[in-house]
Design goal:
280 residues; alpha/beta; TIM Barrel; 2 domains
Length: 280
């Protein structure tokens, strides 16, 4: 298995749907022995400056990143941008548009909750008072805090998941556009957690073919929560489509003790590591 360094290229802070500040995330990574860390918040780079400042003098190599929501055949797909220039004007413009999509979606979901006899306006205010871009995770937390569900996952099961009464499609941009934004910002586009999408084996292969055709260069072969069978299947896809491999915990919350930063993120030897191009 490849990865002499402790590397984690998929994490979140409270600038999206994580619970730690960027500074606290960096501190936790250093304490855990992580040597290369990417902060990849959903559709925002707003936490990178704080994370970079906190990493100075620690020996941690901080990779500027982002996780952008995209659409492929009506399926929501997440594309990681790694080693991006967070100041790239086109990327910043497009991320501002993503933020507006998220805010419009949140308003529509809360309006649907109002029609379900829930306090939609109060829930919207609670979400908007939270740090970071609004996500369904924030809304689930507000529903839980208001006593409307017992736990956040119940909010998804009853209201927020696709097919449930408060779900609203986000209208994400197409996959090829998102890959183009990342490339224009000098980054490497990596398809996040490929085993997590509800796709047939054939559709998953077509997704990878379209991703490569659009300029995608990497695949997250090892992802938090994925078992050995997922790693093996993803490694085979990376080799088949000529993609370099990435590893990431998809860390959100230290209370999720089963998914710590840098958890057993070892890339199979058959896959070329994405970080090799950066001399790591």
């Amino acid at each position: 298995m490849t990865c002499a360094l402790s590397i984690d290229l998929h994490t979140h802070s409270n600038h999206s749907d994580g619970t730690l500040t960027p500074a606290a995330l960096v501190q936790r990574a250093v304490a855990a022995g992580v040597q290369v860390l990417a902060l990849t918040d959903h559709d925002t780079v707003s936490g990178l400056q704080e994370a970079r400042h906190e990493s100075l003098g620690t020996g941690l190599d901080l990779v500027p990143g982002v996780e952008i929501s995209a659409l492929w055949r009506a399926q929501s797909i997440h594309i990681l941008g790694l080693w991006i220039d967070p100041a790239a004007p086109e990327l910043r413009r497009q991320l501002a548009a993503q933020e507006e999509r998220r805010r419009q979606r949140m308003r529509k979901m809360c309006a649907r909750l109002t029609h379900l006899a829930l306090p939609g306006d109060e829930l919207l205010a609670a979400v908007e008072a939270m740090p970071g871009l609004p996500t369904r995770t924030h809304l689930a937390a507000a529903l839980c805090a208001g006593g409307h569900v017992r736990e956040p996952q119940e909010a998804f099961r009853r209201y927020l998941r696709k097919g449930k009464p408060a779900h609203v499609a986000a209208g994400w941009p197409p996959l090829d556009e998102v890959v183009g934004w990342i490339g224009a910002a000098g980054g490497i586009a990596s398809l996040a957690h490929p085993a997590r999408y509800a796709l047939s084996a054939g559709a998953r292969r077509q997704l990878l073919a379209d991703f490569v055709a659009a300029g995608g260069r990497a695949l997250e072969v090892v992802s938090g929560g994925g078992g050995a069978s997922h790693v093996d299947a993803s490694a085979m896809l990376a080799v088949r489509f000529g993609l370099v491999g990435s590893v990431g915990s998809d860390f959100h919350d230290p209370r999720q003790i089963w998914n710590p930063l840098g958890r057993s993120l070892k890339l199979p030897d058959c896959v070329v590591p994405v970080w090799r191009a950066f001399g790591l």
